[in-house]
Design goal:
Blueprint lengths: L5 E7 L2 E6 L2 H22 L8 E3 L5 E5 L2 E5 L1 H12 L5 E3 L1 H4 L1 H4 L2
Parallel strand pairs: 3-6
Antiparallel strand pairs: 1-2, 4-5
């Protein structure tokens, strides 16, 4: 994820929240992350990890608590809902990410 200017913020249950510098970085990283999990599952011989990815962009509140950076706000809530719309091994993008302005079209 670092090669796409991304970083893991935290895990919440079986979910992972990550941030990226630009929407295009998140869109580029998503298929590579899915591919990595697919490779892991193939080596393990069982689809032990099923991944679904959602991406949204927008402003959020960044807070440092106990030396850990965390993000809050409506953007984070929408991102969680977008991820919930994805099925297994799918990438779901909000209109804010999919917009031609951010996808390089």
């Amino acid at each position: 994820m670092q090669e796409h200017s991304g970083a893991i913020v935290k895990s919440i249950g079986d979910a992972v929240m990550a941030v990226f510098s630009r929407p295009t970085d998140a869109v580029s990283a998503a298929p590579r992350i899915l591919g990595g999990i697919e490779h892991y599952n193939a080596e393990d011989g069982d689809p032990s990890i099923i991944l679904k990815i959602g991406a949204h962009r927008g402003p959020s509140i960044a807070v440092t608590l106990n030396e850990n950076l965390d993000y809050f706000g409506q953007t984070v809530n929408v991102a969680a809902r977008v991820q919930a719309l994805a099925d297994a091994e799918e990438i779901c993008l909000s209109e804010a990410v999919y917009s031609p302005r951010w996808c390089g079209r």
